């Protein structure tokens, strides 16, 4: 008897300051297109990406949350039921990197998985095609920052040149699925809390292995 085809639906947030390229990243990932003339997102926008993943169908519902929301009360509504997130900054604008910590703290304070753990979050150092990187030139320092801040990985990205967009998304999906399995395990009482499953894929170079 043939097994039924399994489908997964995941809500993923894309957050960060105004103008860091959130909408461009989503357009590149979903539609494989780029335009330098996007208008600022008002409130929240949506996009759907369908993936074939290990014989299963994964549907990513990407929530493009306006940068001007700035940690307001509405973000709690927008964050609800999300299982993963990208936080984006612009490598040419130092202030957008300095805001990353506030975005991450806001996310963690308003959203947790059913087992109480933080959702998987990947940091995107966007617009790396500009060649003027104020923050992400020191990979070791960035990795330490991400580990200290609770990110599962980070990538230099460019929506314009299509750099590391798919790789960053694959990294996030791997961690979401691992976390989902972990939530299922945590339903069964255990003296030792289960640890996040390691992700074993060398192609996901910016994705921490646990």
UniProtKB/TrEMBL annotation:
GO terms for molecular function: GTP binding; GTPase activity. PROSITE patterns: RAB, RAS. It is found in: Endomembrane system; Membrane. Keywords: GTP-binding, Lipoprotein, Membrane, Nucleotide-binding, Prenylation. InterPro entries: P-loop_NTPase, Rab29/Rab38/Rab32, Small_GTP-bd, Small_GTPase. One of its GO terms (biological process) is endosome to lysosome transport. It is a lipid-anchor. Pfam families: Ras. Signal peptide: none annotated. The keyword Coiled coil does not apply. It comes from the Eukaryota. GO terms for cellular component: late endosome; lysosome; membrane; phagocytic vesicle; trans-Golgi network. The keyword Membrane applies. Its main location: membrane. The small GTPases Rab are key regulators in vesicle trafficking. Belongs to the small GTPase superfamily. Rab family. This is Ras-related protein Rab.
């Amino acid at each position: 008897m043939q097994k039924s085809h399994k489908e997964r639906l995941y809500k993923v947030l894309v957050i960060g300051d105004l103008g860091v390229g959130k909408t461009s990243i989503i357009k590149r990932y979903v539609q494989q297109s780029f335009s330098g003339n996007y208008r600022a997102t008002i409130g929240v926008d949506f996009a759907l990406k369908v993936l074939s993943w290990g014989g299963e169908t994964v549907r990513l519902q990407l929530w493009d949350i306006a940068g001007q929301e700035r940690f307001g009360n509405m973000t709690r509504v927008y964050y609800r039921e999300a299982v993963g997130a990208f936080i984006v900054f612009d490598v040419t604008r130092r202030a957008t990197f300095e805001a990353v910590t506030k975005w991450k703290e806001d996310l963690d304070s308003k959203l947790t998985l059913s087992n109480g753990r933080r959702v998987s979050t990947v940091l995107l150092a966007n617009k790396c095609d500009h060649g003027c990187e104020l923050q992400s030139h020191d990979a070791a320092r960035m990795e330490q920052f991400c580990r200290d801040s609770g990110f599962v990985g980070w990538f230099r990205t460019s929506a314009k040149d299509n750099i590391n967009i798919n790789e960053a998304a694959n990294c996030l999906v791997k961690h979401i699925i691992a976390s989902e399995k972990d939530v299922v395990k945590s339903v069964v009482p255990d003296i030792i809390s289960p640890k996040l499953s390691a992700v074993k894929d060398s192609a996901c170079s910016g994705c921490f292995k646990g």
